[in-house]
Amino acid sequence: MPLSPPETQQLDAILPTEPLLLMGAGPVPISHAVSRANGVVINHLGETMDAVISNVKLMGRYAFQTVSDKIIGVSGPASAAMEMGITNILWPGRSVLALSMGTFSGRMAEMAEGVGADVTVLESSGIAPVRLEQVREALAKEHFDVVTLVQGETSCGVKMKCLPEVAQLAKEHGALLVVDAVCTLTTMPMQMDEWGVDIAIAGGQKGLSSIPGVSLIAFSDDAWQTIESRKARQPHWCLDAVRAQTFWGSQQYHYTAPVPGILALHEALRQICEETLPLRFERHRISSIALQAGIEAMGLRLFVPIKDRLNSVVAICTPKDTSSAQVRKIMSNRFNVEISGAFGLDIMRIGQMGEQCRSHNLFKVLYALGMSCRQKGVDLDVSLGMAELESNLVIDPEYLVD
Ligand SMILES: *Cc1c(COP(=O)(O)O)cnc(C)c1O
To answer: Is 130 domain-assigned?
Structure first.
């Protein structure tokens, strides 16, 4: 019997009248220019698209700080870009040292196992990044073809401060370095060429403040040579970097590109170029430091010690006698602000990526957090927190306004 159509529901009936302010660990709010671009569909081949692609590559080079022309957009989540990076340079018989300090760094190890590479996982201990000494020892003991790490571990709010030193060690030992910069790219320095990063990965919905579902990846000459000299069969078709380069390098058909998402990425990158990286880093730093100061002044504790603390995603210890889920529920229902919980850790996470770092968003999220905790009986000085936030925004306040 043929199926009859189900009862339908207008999207407007499901969506809240006023969208929640996305102050979690991603996706993040998008600018009007990005949103408008995302509503446009044009042909994925032809002169107009060629111009869009060459702009995206040019602006992508600036974002990654590389002169490489191997900048490729990926139709898929940041994880798909990670998978493109990992699976193109690894195959059975190749070895990888995976620096793990949380969910996303661990994910690259899983992907490497998936393609049959020999994977050694180097774990961090406690709330900290993997230490440079650990990497030095591991690389001295045996040869690895590839080293993988995450610049900012979104899952717990820890940053890999010694990335440049690890990159240098990897070079000295003849290993390619893969860096997941999904949450950090354009929120803090990432010097792909200067540091010697071979593969750098960015997602749309985090640091770049574009939409989820279209990601960006950059390959160094060394990484590209490895890919081109590959004899092992490439198990992927969509994620085959050489095939993808037919579109991103020669504007020829590979698969139908995610046109609206690429147009959105174009606008996100253009706004990054207009802002300039130094000012953008400063906006993120000051915004996050002021937020952290406000959180602590209120009486809440931050999860990561300052020396390893990531600014792009701030992890907060859940106060005693309440739960992250309870607090976040009040924040959503009463204040229309959404922040994140975590996978397996008793923390709440506030994002400081792209459009999240605007003064009006900071005041809104801090007030919502403080008042929601208070509603659950936590004794906090919300006024003191708000005052501390205000006095730490030592930047022209206009600049933090959209
Ligand atoms: C969010 C995130 C990812 C995964 O992004 P998806 O788009 O969900 O695949 C990977 N790495 C880091 C550091 C992230 O923050």
So the answer is: yes
Co-location of 238 and 157 in the same domain: yes
Q: Is the CB of 203 under 6 A from ligand 1?
A: yes
Measured CA to CA in angstroms, residue 351 lies from 178, 179, 207, 208, 330 at distances of: 24, 20, 10, 13, 18
Domain hosting 393: range is: 276-400
Inter-residue contact 149 to 162 (CB < 8 Å)? no
Total domains present in the chain: 2
Q: Which of 206, 216, 349 to mutate to test the pocket of ligand 1 (most atoms within 8 A of CB)?
A: 206
The 3-state DSSP class for residue 370 equals helix
List, for residues 294-353, the tens digit of each pLDDT value: 999 999 999 999 999 999 999 999 999 899 999 999 999 999 999 999 988 999 999 999
**Dihedral (Cα; 124, 125, 131, 137), 10-degree rounding:** -80
Instruction: Look at the pTM and tell me if it is higher than 0.90.
Output: yes
| 42 in any annotated domain | yes
Neighbour-count burial of 302, counting CB atoms closer than 10 A to its CB (0-12 exposed, 13-18 middle, 19+ buried): middle
Query: Among 64, 351, 105, which residue's Cα sits nearest to residue 197?
Result: 64
Atom of ligand 1 nearest to the CA of 151: 13
Q: Does residue 60 fall inside a structural domain? A: yes
Among 222, 156, 161, smallest CA distance to 190 is for 161
- Average pLDDT of 22-26? 97
The pLDDT value given to residue 190: 97
Q: Show Cβ contacts of residue 367 under 8 Å, excluding neighbours closer than 6 positions.
A: 335, 382, 386
Ligand 1 atom closest to the Cα of residue 153 is 13
Q: What is the pLDDT of residues 389-400, one digit of tens each?
A: 999 997 655 555
Report percent pLDDT > 90 for the chain: 94
With 60 as the cut, is the pLDDT of residue 252 above it?
yes
Q: Do 249 and 282 have their domain in common?
A: no
At residue 73, the 3 state secondary structure works out as strand
pLDDT in tens, 321-333: 899 999 999 999 9
Distance separating alpha carbons of residues 310 and 243, to the nearest angstrom: 36
